[in-house]
Each structure stands twice: as structure tokens, then as C-alpha cells.
Amino acid sequence: MGMVSLKRILSAARAKATGVAEHIRSVSQAACARMCAKLSDERGQGTTEYAILVGVLVVIAIIAITVFRPKLEELWNAIADGMNSL
To answer: Do residues 18 and 24 make contact, with C-beta atoms less than 8 angstroms apart?
Structure first.
């Protein structure tokens, strides 16, 4: 193997490596652009806000039922007694 053929092999390897590096760079830039687009997408944000709102309302309802349980039982019994007396 002569010096000329070794230089050709090294030159070809360098060109191939440069091409691969450029391809990797372009693919990573495209992936980064897609990731940034997905992260800036806010379509699901409204759904999340509604879910949080419903969760808070459920917690408030549970607390209200727990706190006012004796009054609710008294009211329920009064209604039941009134219907039974009809």
C-alpha cells in the first residue's frame, strides 16, 4: 500500500465522517425544532385547568358535606317525615 492510496483512504474517510457529522447535526436540529414546537403547544392546557377546577370543587363539596352533615341529616329526616305524613 503506497502513500498515495493511504492519502486517498484517509481523504475518503474524512469526507465520509464529515458527511455523517452533517447528517447528525441536521437530524438533531430537526428533532430539537420538533421538541420546541411540542413544548410551546398549549392545546392541552385548557383541559388541565378544567380538571384542576373540578378537583377543587369536589374537595370543597366533600368538606361542605362533612361539616354540615348533622344539618343535612336533620333536613333529610324532616323531608322524609313530611312525605310519610301525607
So the answer is: no
